[in-house]
Amino acid sequence: MNPFTYLPIHQALKQVIQSIVIVDIDLLAYNLDTEYCYPWTATTSIFFTLSNDPLYLKQNNQYYSLPLCYVVGPRLVNDVINFGNKRRTLGITFKAGGFQRLMGVPVNLLTKENVDLHQIFGRETQEVEERLKEADSNIEILIIIESFLLKRLYLMGKFSLFDLSIEQCVEANGNTQISKLASVAGLSIRQFERKCKERLGLSPKLFSRLTRFGNAYRLKELNPNLNWTYIAYDSGYYDQMHLIHDFKMFSGYSPSMINKIESYNIKVMSFLQGKY
């Protein structure tokens, strides 16, 4: 049984949503580590726990329970999450800039944060959470979450030149000059930087670096036997040393350590991007 079920994305939401995935996994049965060290990421995601068992955030050897439904903005810290022995969760990951376009919430307010969705949407997400837990099938889950997301369409602004520039940056794995991206967006570099911090929660330079790093990290998660020279080349790094520097900074691990741990880790980065 595949522990990851990708749900189809409604046509009206494809501009802003990267993936909708249900994780239903017994980590012990799959001989997987129950803790996962998240690397830094540029994405924003919503999570609904489909049971009453919360995730736990590990900090300084202490564990803190996370809300049963929450949004996490760009991660600029290596959060260690304990999944428990079994996990059933719905995850919605947004394309770059997509969360603010659909939800109307500036992403810079969410950077490095795990925010209870009820603090943003109140009773609406409380009802969604309750209905999701009672759902009898994946189709019912899809109908519930689609309804919640489609209600936000009235907030969604038109696809802009800024959105086009960010889309091009992602397609190039972050390997595009900031000046070119600003030009595509029809903005000065300073205006573009301000827009990035509001819409992405990051400076354009850091967003580009994390986009490139994220591609390299997913390549390694999905293909543990790929050598680092190939990954560096495929991801657009100048050389292997630049890749190693980013891995140490953004994952907290050296590439040699990644080789040892990836065989028994759940592939979080990959399944959230719909590339598992």
- Structural class from helices and strands? alpha+beta
Residue runs with pLDDT of under 50 for 5 or more positions? none
Name the CATH architecture of the domain at 4-155: Sandwich
CATH class (first level) name of the domain at 4-155:
Mainly Beta
CATH topology of the domain at 4-155: Jelly Rolls
Q: What portion of residues belong to β-strands?
A: 15-25%
Strand order within the widest beta sheet = 1-2-9-4-7-10
Q: Averaged pLDDT, please?
A: 89
Order of helices and strands: EEEEEEEEEHEHHHHHHHHHHH
Brief rundown of the structure:
The chain is an alpha+beta fold and 276 residues long. It is built from twelve helices and ten strands.
Descriptive overview:
The protein starts with a strand and ends with a helix. Helix 3 packs antiparallel against helix 4 (138-150) and helix 5 (161-171) packs antiparallel against helix 6. It is globular and about 50 Å long. A hairpin with a 2-residue loop joins strand 5 (56-59) and strand 6 (62-65). It has a domain at 4-155: Jelly Rolls (Sandwich). The model has no long low-confidence stretch (mean pLDDT 89). The chain is an alpha+beta fold and 276 residues long. The protein has helices at 98-103, 117-121, 123-134, 138-150, 161-171, 178-185, 189-199, 204-222, 228-235, 240-251, 255-261, 268-272, and strands at residues 4-6, 17-26, 35-37, 44-49, 56-59, 62-65, 69-72, 80-82, 86-94, 114-116. It contains 12 helices and 10 strands. It has a 6-stranded antiparallel β-sheet with strand order 1-2-9-4-7-10. It has a 4-stranded antiparallel β-sheet with strand order 3-8-5-6, with no helix packed on it.
